[in-house]
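User: I'm new to structure prediction. If I give you an amino acid sequence, what do you actually give back? Let's try with this one:
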Amino acid sequence: MDMELKERFLERWNKYFPKAELPIVFYYSDQPDQGELLKPSTDWRCLFADLARVRNGKSIALDAVSIGCGGAKKYLGYDLEPRQYFENFLSDGIPGKMEGIRFKKSPELVRIVSKHQPEFSAPGKYIIFKRWDALQTDDKPLAVIFFAIPDVLSGLYGLANFDEPDPNSVIAPSGSGCSSIVYFPYHELESDHPRAVIGMFDISARPFAPPATLTFAVPWPKFLRMVQNMDESFLITEQWNQIRIRLNR
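Assistant: Good question. You get back a string of structure tokens that encode the predicted 3D arrangement of the chain. For your 249 residues, that looks like this:
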């Protein structure tokens, strides 16, 4: 991690998005000592409950046994075994045996969707989450994740589109909250033109984030361009200044 970049972003973030929450990052590692290794949980625990610590400045490390949600294990790359009845769980359940969460109309539709979301294996034993101001020289972020209110989200959206000819350079794919901040941004790294991902539409994860907040996850190469473009974009205009003043109240 380039410490000059770290400070440059902090300066511009505070200038153009005053009082806005700092983003967090994730990366994979074979060493857990970059963050507190969370203990295994026998009860279900949403990843976003753990990320509340990160948003408050605490770096954490998670592995296959400390992730408290089966879906998060899948979308963070730590569960490669097919989950029995997963398609029923996401749809209408199994009468007398399992209540479905009804995110999809039928198990068949879940199976079709799954074909477009290939499994992947985490490239490290641990996934590390850190807030931006906690980053150190040896850290290698893969994506930057913003928890953004509408005014901030509009600025990030505009900045992500600033140097792109493609009107679809920001996407909002259907999926879990954790897939929108890890799975999809991670796979965008394979593209020559990685796209930013808007998320946190998952109603099972929403109780663990403020009501007026969505996520905006940016693959690292695209984030670098966004930072480089800040001082020549709409952020320097009077139009944005009106929003900046509102953020600063």
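You can read the tokens as a compact description of the fold. Here is one thing that stands out. The CA atoms of residues 4 and 145 lie 20 Å apart.
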